[in-house]
Amino acid sequence: MKETRRKKVVLCGKAWLARKILDWYMDRPTQFEVVRIVPVIPKENWYECDLVSYAEQLGIPVEHSGDIEKIPGLFETEVYADILQLVFYKRIVRKATIEQFGIGLNIHLSELPKYRGARGINWALKNRERYQGVTIHKLTEKLDQGPIIAQSRFTIYPEFEEVKDVYERALQHAYLLFSHTLPDLHRIVPVEQDHSVATYYSSKDFHRLDDRLTFTKEASLRLRSVDSDAGS
């Protein structure tokens, strides 16, 4: 029987979900080989798992700069790896870099094309949405605009839920969606997003989040108070 070549994977990102996805790939050594980890630099405190130390324990090379383009030998072959996996990686990836991979996959915690950009969960609660979603889409050089590979939605309760409540649930949904999608990735035809109904928020909009600025209303109002005092 002909042996199937293992797919090479580069994983870029941070936190609990990145580690869970790394474990998923590592649990399938006959199908995948994780050849490089690119962490988010600097790392943040909320929901952090030490992805760097964990990868080093597993013997996976780490690009400590946090920059995909500094991976040794990235542009020296026609295709560096089969899958470029992004999990909360906070950099725009250039088209030339994406083209060094068979496919780029990004996980976004919203039901794209709604809530492109930053803090989609915060905005969904601020806007009193009844549903939130998670999306796996094909990576392009345009932020959160790539064709959709898989998507799911779940109910949220803005009248009593905090951002951290929905965020925790979204992580679980994202991992479930990922684990159900990857085995069939080779058969899935990505679907273009309907850009006419897209919404987008950036860090420039954060001041309008009010009590949804961060993970709890109490902490959000405290931060707003500090900002107001600093500006007075």
Written overview of the protein:
This protein has helices spanning 15-26, 51-57, 95-98, 120-126, 163-181, 217-231; strands at 7-13, 32-39, 81-87, 101-108, 116-117, 131-138, 148-155, 200-201. With 232 residues, it is of the alpha/beta class. The chain has one domain (7-231): Rossmann fold, CATH 3.40.50. The longest helix has 19 residues, at 163-181.
| Major sheet: arrangement of strands | 2-1-3-4-6-7
First-residue to last-residue Cα separation: 74 Å
- CATH fold annotation: Rossmann fold
The radius of gyration is: 18 Å
Low-confidence stretches: none
Average pLDDT figure: 93
**CATH architecture annotation:** 3-Layer(aba) Sandwich
Short summary of the structure?
By secondary structure, this protein is of the alpha/beta class. Helix content is 28%, strand content 22%. It contains 6 helices and 8 strands.
